[in-house]
Design brief:
Layout: H1 2-7, H2 21-37, E1 39-43, E2 47-53, E3 59-72, E4 78-80, E5 83-89, E6 92-99, E7 102-104, E8 108-119, H3 125-137, E9 139-154, E10 158-173, E11 178-184
Length: about 180
Amino acid sequence: MAEKNQNQYQPPELSGYRRNDQESLHTMEDEEAKRKKRMKWTIGIIAFTLNVRTQASPSFDMSFVAPIRVKNTNWGPFKYDASTVYFAYGGVQVGQAIIPKSKANFKSTKKIDVNVSMRSANLPGNINSNLGNELSSGVITLASQGELKGKITVMFMFKKKKTSQMNCTMAINTATKEIQPLSCK
């Protein structure tokens, strides 16, 4: 009879072990980091044209090809819906790129090249004055945001809905037509 009692499961609290708040917080952060690492996507720029006017009404008009990469680190294919990446200057949208519906196979990276056109013609006055300063300095700071929603099929049986978000900031040198720093979250 005494043997049966020894083989029974005892909760950690009864066996003298207690998980402290710091330890449980650490495991929650680890799980969040693992979840965010599973799907990543980035954006870069291959080639672009840029027209700049710095007279009384400063503006820019540019177009380029953006190579977007959807990296799937899961053990199942990621099928995502069509989406849009928005480009903004000073919080005002100046362009967008359409990402077509597609699939990234398991443990691979899907490569997509999209055309982007950006115009600063309709910026408000206070932002437009800041644009004049940036154009005269030769560097324009832009932000891009996007979201991919889709499903991952794990072991060809289970489907899970997943969302991957991109939020990038880039500085474009108007003289060399290159992106200087590109940082994404």
